[in-house]
Design goal:
Blueprint: H1 7-41, E1 57-63, E2 66-72, E3 75-77, E4 83-86, E5 94-99, E6 108-110, H2 119-125, H3 128-134, H4 157-163, E7 168-174
């Protein structure tokens, strides 16, 4: 544990925020590469504004009148007007959302459906054939290396979205066509 105002905490925050900037730069580079490929095969494609949304991170924010560090683990920022992405699973729909700024959630919402069973349980319970069936129509890996990501291992994204309607409003519902895992 680091105490506020110590050299250790200052060093930790410097390194943490550097790593988060590095991760964002990496995501931006991947997005640029993806856009280049799409433009090569579909030249008239025009991309709109990118929605930059990460989860599992720390942010310096003010809540209830105090400067705090908010750790969002499996969560996204859902401040008033913030755009975010809430994915379902490899074979289900995902959502573009706009935050409602609910102070009781520290202006946060879930990052996705969330697991309903552990990775180990999913590997024991399902087969590669189950994975192929549940991801029919989605271009993705369909092998044992991603079996733990099978859609049935996740909660129902529709129910999850219903339970957080006081946190976000749905801007767009996306149908899964491509999923890159591993």
């Amino acid at each position: 544990m680091f105490l506020a105002g110590t050299k250790e905490m200052d060093d930790y925050r410097r390194d943490l925020f550097w790593a988060q900037r590095y991760a964002r730069t990496n995501r931006e580079a991947m997005l640029g590469l993806y856009q280049d490929v799409v433009r090569r095969f579909r030249p008239p494609t025009v991309f709109g504004e990118a929605v930059h949304c990460h989860h599992n991170y720390v942010s310096e924010e003010v809540h209830f009148g105090e400067q705090v560090l908010v750790t969002r683990k499996g969560a996204i920022r859902a401040g008033n007007g913030d755009l975010g992405i809430i994915p379902g699973s490899m074979g289900t729909r995902s959502f573009i959302v706009r935050g409602l700024g609910n102070p009781m959630s520290f202006e946060s919402a879930s990052h996705g459906a969330g697991r309903r069973m552990s990775r180990g349980q999913a590997r024991k319970r399902f087969t590669v054939n189950d994975l192929r069936e549940q991801t029919k129509g989605v271009e993705c890996r369909k092998d044992g290396g991603v079996l733990d990501e099978i859609p049935a291992a996740y909660k129902d994204i529709g129910k999850v979205m219903e339970q957080q309607k006081d946190l976000v409003e749905v801007v767009a519902e996306l149908r899964q066509v491509l999923c890159v895992k591993g």
